[in-house]
């Protein structure tokens, strides 16, 4: 009874035992030096089948705390926690300084294409940053992408993606051409080479005329 009265939980919570079929899940201990939101979300998602058992949610959460965080829990006033919502609130408040900075769509305006960077690499880098933003606004993303391509701001996001694929296709065709040339050079059957169409202008100039067409 003395232990119950000194607990941060109310007597009602302390007196309730876990369900007979309950098996303790494995959690990475929280030591007070990481993002509390992330730990709490992981805990809630793992305990989703027991969300209606408020007492279990409270008492089991304390087993995920370790070190400094466990010491903090025992500094809470006796019988001050009446629900898991209250425990979550004081936990987040205590370690709010460790919260990760949530990036918004405006962050994409800081992604600028370097003068020596290929459009393919720029698109890839832009997409990686965009994927980190939860609920990213597509209109802002498009505007930020255009802003990042200051040398040619008229190009849209979709057109830039097409150009990125175009760069990849050019590299692929170049590699294929070099491979075929080497094969013909190394084989003994190159005494009667195949006849290829000859162009009066470089093939690259021809393809450039329709590279942006469907």
What are the SSEs and their pairings?
Layout: H1 2-6, H2 11-15, H3 36-46, H4 54-61, H5 68-73, H6 84-94, H7 119-131, H8 138-148, H9 157-186, H10 203-208
* Main β-sheet description: none
Number of self-contained structural domains: 2
As a percent range, the share of strand residues is under 5%
Point out poorly predicted stretches. Answer: none
The pLDDT mean sits at 80
Helix content: 40-55%
| Overall strand count | 0
Gross morphology = elongated
The string of secondary-structure elements, in order, is HHHHHHHHHH
Terminal residue distance:
78 Å
> Radius of gyration, Cα only, in angstroms?
31 Å
Q: SS-based structural class?
A: mainly alpha
SS summary, helix count: 10
Describe what is shown at a glance.
With 214 residues, the chain is an all-alpha fold. 50% of the residues lie in helices and 0% in strands.
